[in-house]
Amino acid sequence: MSEIKVQCIDQAISFLNTPVISSGNVNYDRISFDFCSRWDGYAKTAIFYRNKDEVYYRLLENDSCLIPKEVLTEKGVIYIGVFGCKDDVTITSQVLT
To answer: Do residues 55 and 47 make contact, with C-beta atoms less than 8 angstroms apart?
Structure first.
């Protein structure tokens, strides 16, 4: 299993590592986030897409989730972001490729 690690400080996110993620994997590759205290108490959801017409959401458990198989069907660029919700407040991150 490969795991992408991402740091999230305020709304800026950056890769802490960049392992090889191969196309065609199913329920194998993960992403984990290291959030600053600004995100405390928020229910966090990762977003993944290859094109903006097909966005995939994964609720984070222990700040991590599996990467959706739908974005790994073929080789190419994947966009990754995260948002959090608490009461009537939503915080969003920038998007990484």
So the answer is: yes
| Cα 62–Cα 31–Cα 29 angle in degrees, nearest 5 | 120
Phi, then psi, of 84 in degrees rounded to 5: -130, 145
Residue 61, both tokens: 């458990």
Is-contact 81 60, C-beta < 8 A? no
> What pTM value is reported for the model?
0.93
Tokens representing 53 are 């017409």
User: For 36-81, what is each residue's pLDDT tens digit?
Assistant: 999 999 999 999 999 889 999 999 999 999 999 999 998 889 999 9
Q: What token pair was written down for 6?
A: 């991402």
3-state SS string for 29-67: CEEEEEECHHHCCCEEEEEEECCCCCEEEEECECCEEEC
